[in-house]
Amino acid sequence: MNELLLETRGLTKSYHHQNVVSDLAIKVPKNSVYGLLGANGAGKSTTLKMLTGIVAPTKGEILYQNQSWKRKDLSEIGALIESPPLYGNLTAKENLLVRTVTLGLPKERIEEVLKIVQLTDTGKKKARQFSMGMKQRLGIALALLNNPKLLILDEPTNGLDPIGIQDFRQLIRSFPEKGITVILSSHILSEIEQTVDKIGIISNGRLGYQGDLPKNTQALEELFLEIAKTYTEVGGF
């Protein structure tokens, strides 16, 4: 069995006595791309926000490298949750410079991450003039500045055209060989199928399946629909 970089045990988040995520137990192998698959509103974003410390779990445990998750672990975690946090009036380099100064990171990382996400030739172009794909790439560059061991991406291909999605997929697949483990959430079956090594399927805040990808697209779709139906019938929120 592959060594785990991150694991959750009984992870639960409630709002107003209503569970949004219930007893989640995910296992993310080191140097892999783990896909968290689920329909809109399934609890994916809430789960990722707990993993990045944006919201606190109601109960349960998060283990990072076999130790209980602590705030200091954020120094090894990069994340892009929802929209990239960009300054529209600044260039790509200037956006990255703001982050390096804020976090006390070496400025040399700016050119390194721009090369990784293929944004080295944007020059004086302002971020507000970027395409959606370029903005997503810059968002990932920001998340990579601290040289993370874990990169967490929430619905990263939203708004991208087919070419942008293909380029983005290749970028994500390149991270494990650089020593970066990726957790990627999506509701798009084809995106998950072509990008990840392992999957977890979540429905109504519950993990209905975790493991290897089914053998083909049809099998994945059937599994996804079966889990969605099962967890709706047993008590949706």
From TrEMBL:
InterPro entries in alphabetical order: AAA+_ATPase, ABC_Gallidermin_ATP-bd, ABC_transporter-like_ATP-bd
Domain ABC transporter: 6-229
Coiled coil: none
Pfam family, any one: ABC_tran
PROSITE patterns: ABC_TRANSPORTER_2 (PS50893)
SMART domains for this protein: AAA
Keyword annotations from UniProtKB, A to Z: ATP-binding, Nucleotide-binding, Transport
Keyword Transport: yes
Molecular function as annotated in GO: ATP binding
Family statement: Belongs to the ABC transporter superfamily.
Listed name of the protein: Lantibiotic protection ABC transporter ATP-binding protein
